[in-house]
Design brief:
34% strand; elongated
Length: 350
């Protein structure tokens, strides 16, 4: 069941020639954690601001629990939406204590009780810090206060706009796990905005990729990683090889050699030109491998090495890569045979 329905919304700012958000549609399911990811400037924050009521779409509409929130010329005020919000800078009030910050968003002052504040202090691991001020606690603790404040009014939906940007990697990883547990425990639906794939992979049930104001693909994390809709999505979620191909008599003509069209592909949907996309870990070294290659160089990345190679006897200068565990070394000029399992290949037309 969808708690949030975004239907064909667009927004063009007066000073812009092209829309910041261009005719996007997306449903967020009840109790799911959904990540909207993309590079800076792609329209993520504009989208979340429209959901929060801070911007109004030029066209299209947004519904929350079946009730209209936005339409061109109509917008429910932000304070009447019962949607929680966690901002990138957290926006805590410096003159209020942790406890006072948590209770601030509750409209009914009779509900701003000691019991309520203690519940959220315990829920978010802030026990004993209620009387401190924001400058007296750590960055990770500030983040938990911001989350508690957003949850205190008991919204069904919470919006999180790049909330982990200012945390170092160790604190961030701990916070991601904690936030997921808290959202699940409170049965709160969440839309997370981020440009970090690791945050989306750890927290989200589903992920939507946004680029230049449009949505490219929505899927569960493993599907996005294994079956990207295009080369942009493939690279966004990790290193990938893009093998240029031409469809020729039921086979793919490539710089690596001829490759049979995998049986899982729907042949009638394939364009004549495109790319076979796969992950570098998919390359298997074997004396009986399908393709002969020559090592060009290798690069050390700590827990693995990236090995660059080129196909032997190819007129193309294109290079590809595979990953190998530390301890395996291949000198430039080494010749090997490799294979790529058909089930690891995805066809992308762009």
């Amino acid at each position: 069941m969808s708690i949030l329905e975004i239907s064909n919304i667009s927004l063009t700012y007066p000073a812009m020639d092209s829309p910041a958000v261009n005719n996007i549609s997306l449903n967020i399911e009840k109790n799911e954690i959904h990540a909207l990811v993309g590079e800076s400037g792609c329209g993520k924050s504009t989208t979340i601001r429209m959901i929060a009521g801070l911007e109004n779409p030029t066209s299209g509409e947004i519904k929350y629990n079946g009730q209209l929130l936005n339409r061109a010329g109509y917008s429910v005020p932000p304070e009447k939406r019962n949607i929680g919000m966690v901002f990138q800078d957290n926006s805590l009030f410096p003159h209020l204590t942790v406890k006072e910050n948590i209770l601030f968003g509750i409209k009914d002052k009779t509900q701003r009780t000691e019991e309520k504040s203690e519940y959220f202090l315990n829920l978010t691991g802030l026990n004993g810090l209620g009387e401190r001020y924001p400058h007296e606690i750590s960055g990770g603790q500030v983040q938990r206060v911001a989350l508690s404040r957003a949850l205190a009014p008991e919204p069904e939906l919470i919006l999180m706009d790049e909330p982990f940007n200012n945390l170092d990697i160790r604190i961030k990883m701990n916070m991601l796990e904690e936030v997921g547990k808290i959202l699940n425990k409170t049965n709160t639906t969440c839309l997370l905005i981020t440009h970090e794939k690791s945050e989306a992979f750890i927290l989200a049930d589903r992920i939507t990729v946004m680029r230049e104001g449009t949505l490219l693909q929505t899927a569960k994390p493993p599907e996005l990683y294994k079956s990207p809709v295009d080369t942009y999505v493939a690279e966004f979620f990790g290193r990938a090889n893009h093998i240029p191909v031409k469809l020729n008599n039921g086979m793919f003509e490539t710089a690596m050699g001829m490759i049979n069209v995998p049986s899982a592909f729907e042949k009638n949907t394939l364009s004549e030109l495109g790319f076979l996309v796969h992950r570098p870990w998919d390359v298997k070294i074997s004396k009986d491998g399908d393709f002969e290659i020559e090592i060009v160089n290798s690069y050390f990345f700590g827990d693995y090495q990236e090995v660059r190679f080129k196909p032997i006897n190819s007129e193309s200068d294109v290079q590809f890569k595979f990953f190998t565990h530390i301890g395996e070394y291949f000198a430039p000029g080494t010749k090997l045979r490799v294979s790529i399992p058909a089930e690891r290949l995805t066809f992308c037309s762009s």
